Amino acid sequence: MEISNPKLPLLGSADKTIPVFGFGTATFPFVPFETTKEAILHAIELGYGHFDSATIYQTEQPLGQAISEAISLRFIKSREELFITSKLWCCDAHPELVLPAIQKSLKNLNLEYIDLYLIHWPVALKPGKNYPFDKEQDLLPLDFQSVWEAMEECQKLGLVKSIGVSNFSRKKLETLLATAKILLAINQVEMNPIWQQKKLREFCKEKGIVVAAYSLLGARGVFWGTNRVMECEVLKEIADEKGKTIAQVCLRWAFEQGVSFVAKSFNKERMKENLGIFDWKLSPDELQKIDKIQRGYFALEVTANAAPYKTPQELWDGEI
Q: Can you tell me the distance from the alpha carbon of 90 to that of 216, in angstroms, rounded to the nearest whole number?
């Protein structure tokens, strides 16, 4: 099934683009392998072409199997029709562990290359520490330069097509850019009508870095999430006037901000519904109303008194 899914150009890789709308695979608590695989397979059938995974999500293997089955079922002709993102978890954010981590992800996915590979957080964990971890004991500073150099080497080897980061502030991006030989393509961050990330988006636009938004609907239902997005009266009013869902309004808003974004739903009706955002627009008045929504943030925190960053403000360098 063909759907309209515009693409954005990526820096650091010749003629490479990323589909604007990605299908998220993160769930918490984790769901069974088969549930994840079937949801991804249905998403491929619906026409989703961009899939966002990560080592820590435990979704690389079901994603890889879904891709194989989608080819067998002729939902797609080849893997090249899909854009696959995965991420370097913090316990592997050490220069000597980057290559083995990517090789493990490729094995999990049963792929020869990953389209986009991201440093998941601007912190490291003690090697071998997964999730959950002790925030007071296990978090370590990230060696930005050496870890990025290891990421660059993996791109040179052809294991990944593009490299980027996730959850990086402007200041941390500047630190990375100061020594980077291959420009980072993406900064994936939490972004929604409550936490709009305006200054960060302006900085990334200046540098040619694509912003990819996650938790567009507020990550409702998980311990770091909030109901503030889906219960926002402004968004409800706009949705009612448009005859759309609040989710569709949030997704359309993100599209009109010029960012890439991922959204996760394993509900078949909502998966199809979420795709219906490219044939209508928000009016200037509606965009202005969203722009004036009271701000807030609710990020998953990797902060603690004994950690590299003691508070969310430190993690985000005062940008929240």
A: 23
The three-state secondary structure class of 174 is: helix
* Token couple for 271: 């998966």
Reading the block at residue 13, the tokens are 């890789």
What does each of the 320 residues of the chain score in pLDDT, given as a tens digit? 455 778 898 876 667 899 999 999 998 888 999 999 999 999 999 999 999 999 999 999 999 999 999 999 999 999 999 999 999 999 999 999 999 999 999 999 999 999 999 999 999 999 988 888 999 999 999 999 999 999 999 999 999 999 999 999 999 999 999 999 999 999 999 999 999 999 999 999 999 999 999 999 886 656 566 788 999 999 999 999 999 999 999 999 999 999 999 999 999 999 999 999 999 999 999 999 999 997 776 656 788 899 999 988 899 998 87
Length of the chain: 320
131 is catalytic: no
Burial label, 41 (beta-carbon count in 10 A; 0-12, 13-18, 19+): buried
Q: Which residues are CB-contacts of 288 (< 8 A; sequence separation ≥ 6)?
A: none
Residue 111: name the closest of 77, 61, 153, 156 by CA. 61
| Rounded distance between C-alpha atoms, residue 33 and residue 27, angstroms | 11
CA 45 to chain centre: 21
Six token digits for residue 109: 């996915």
Asked if 163 contacts 185 with a C-beta cutoff of 8 angstroms, the reply is yes
C-alpha 74: how far from chain center: 27
By CB atoms closer than 10 A (0-12, 13-18, 19+), residue 76 is middle
User: For 202, which DSSP code?
Assistant: H
What are the CA-CA distances from residue 216 to residues 267, 283, 289 (Å)? 17, 20, 17
Choosing from 48, 57, 117, 309, which is the catalytic residue? 57
Backbone angles phi, psi at 52, to 5 degrees: -105, 115
How many other C-beta atoms are found inside a 10 Å radius of the C-beta of residue 230? Answer: 18
H or E element, residue 81:
none
